[in-house]
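As a warm-up, study this chain.
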Amino acid sequence: MKKSLLFLSMFFASGVVMANDNVAKSSFFVGVDVNDVMVKSDSIPVLYNGYGKNATFTPSVDDSDVNFSLGFGYKYYIPETNLFVMPRLTYDLGKIKVDGDRGIEEHTLSGTDIIEKDWESHVNFDLKPTYGMDVAFGYKFDNHNEIYLGVGLKNVDYVVNSYNTYKEEKENHLTDIDTIVNYDVFDNKQLADDSKIVYPFSIGYVYNWRNMAFDIGYSYATFDINDVNVDLSTLKLGAKYMF
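Now compare it with the structure written out below.
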């Protein structure tokens, strides 16, 4: 749903701009980006100890969330070429909150009743990209259409928590009614609380219109948390005011 809304926003932003001859010129800019951040991790070992179970579960994260970022920079068009260089400073607003889980089920037959027991291990990532900088190298097709490649660095604050759950559910085949007879949340732990510098690579398209520039881009970065690899993929829609 979030991705659909983001793509609709892109379509709308592209649709409202009209052809209008303007001369590309070097200038400072301020801007805002809407970011759909997709987080994917390797399996995270979590010790499970409760209700007769001693095991290590391996939950993983494959989830996404949305935040915003502010940017300030300078766009320099290299004279007598179609090339430009665009250094930028950014600051992100809002946490990225994503979740993952892994569980097992057990079934016990007893007459007409079946007791279903679920053990699950859960992880929560709170990621807070904060300050960053990048440099984009671009090519101007005409006064309106441009593409770019970028490299940069970004600080990411993160907190990783885990907890386990146990649920015992009684199912009666004669009445087709399920009853939860026991439910508990336990073993709440903080697995990590730290920050990392990541180095995102980006690619994107820019449409220039008067003093505005509309930017559709994608960036990718990877880092590790306690030897667990985490991938950050970001789809963004941005608008910049050139002055």
